[in-house]
Amino acid sequence: MKLCYSTQMREMDRYTIEDLGIQGAALMLNAAAHIADTAMGHLTPGGRVAVFCGPGNNGGDGIGASAILTKMGVAVRVFMVGNEERMTSDSKEMLRRLTALGGRLERFIESGELVEYVHSCDVIIDALFGVGLNTDLRGDALSAAGIINASNAVVISADIPSGVNADTGAIMGDAVNADITVTFSLAKPGHFIEPGCIRCGELRVCDIGVPREIIDGAASDVYSVTSDSLYLPKRKPDSHKGDYGRCLILAGSVGYTGAPALCARAASRMGAGLVFLGVPEPIYHIMAVKLEEEMPFPLPCDREGRLGQAAADELLRRATECDVCLVGPGLGRSLEITELVTSLIHEAKAPIVLDADGLNAIADNLNVLGEASCPMVLTPHLGEFARMGGELSSGDRLGTARDFAQKHGCILVLKGHRTITALPDGTVYINTTGSPAMAKGGSGDVLAGMIAALIGQKIPINDAVVAAVYIHGLAGDMCAAEYGEYSVTASDIIGMIPKAILSLQRRE
């Protein structure tokens, strides 16, 4: 799904109104109708509604919805948070409609009586601020958000919950907790990126009359990933295992045998034709017992049971025979591992996926990414990203991920709730699957193996990474539905990959 930034949305609205001559009040009334219709779906007979409005056009949407609800006989009180004299002309037109029906606009004054009324409501409409908010909530707006959040009513936010940054998903001081967000024309990044996405509840994207050609023609470099956007090619009847990729995995160390097994098994489940697993010699026999379909092989190691630089020649030889290399799960950290990973990056021609200790090996020398002779995919969680210099204090995960991918010419998979995949050309994909059930050791190893498997099958690398992230989360969601959020393991996720893929194929 294509997303748009707040500046783009304002420009689309401006063009529609000023260049095409479509009245702003007409667009606002359409938005108001969607909000009112949503509210009606949650009202009991005799139910009450509280509407909190700001003086901007977002407030006008709320006032317009109030007029529609009033006309339908619903008990509505409308509270203005801010200076009524600063209302836009379209908002004033909505107020005219409301007052013509006997409604009125009340100045917001925090009081016991107001709180009591709000607590008696079935529905609260949040129309304080829309996508243009660029400062923290403060004063009356902050108080209003607190009152809304303390209620038990169904909260409907117009465009985006007030206090959520539409472009980054950051929480600006505080934000309304919406049960439903009714947004217009196109969704925005803040609807999908944490922590803002958590405040949005159910998201509904509604048509308010901006011409379809304008929406379809809007340029975008940010997308939310849905099943419709995935690419998994059908397999040819006359194909063989060599057609589906030779995947080389470099992983494991003494004491860390789970990670290499998980990523190797995940690669097989995700369709890799052949999976080779290079491990330190002391754990080779353990891996040979753990794995049946995959092919482990021993490599020289240091005294602590970690791979050594002596493994370089064998690894480089095998890398030339494979379609993708996955490096890192359970490797441990040492100077020899850093040298080994650096050599592989310099010499390998097939794409490399760096995960876990593969990332740690280059954290102090990111310049090596610019020296790579092959495409690079990095899959850090937030802690690993911070060790690589990723700066997230601004709250803009999307922008930070994009900047990193562009600067270092790599594909970055920034893991977490709503994993972000950033491409070297600046395009960003926000994943929409996954749940807290996946917050278990080994989940990342599974994802790394899935990514490597799809790349090895020669699916275009951008499509392969995005699809693997989505299917990984989908398998986790399906596990949560079957086992509950507490009991899902990384092995469960691997076992659910086939059902996740089948569910996508049935939708085609």
| Mean pLDDT metric | 96
The CATH homologous superfamily of the largest domain is called: YjeF N-terminal domain
CATH architecture of the largest domain: 3-Layer(aba) Sandwich
Work out the strand percent.
5-15%
Please mark out the parts with pLDDT under 50 across 5 or more consecutive residues, or reply none: none
**For the largest beta sheet, what order do the strands appear in spatially?**
8-17-16-15-14-13-12-9-10-11
Overall morphology: elongated
Distance between the termini: 17 Å
Number of helices: 19
What about the largest sheet? 10 strands, mixed
User: Which CATH class of the largest domain?
Assistant: Alpha Beta
Number of strands: 17
User: Into which percent range does the helicity of residues fall?
Assistant: 40-55%
Structural class call reads alpha/beta
Number of domains: 2
- Radius of gyration from the CA trace? 27 Å
CATH third-tier fold name of the largest domain: Rossmann fold
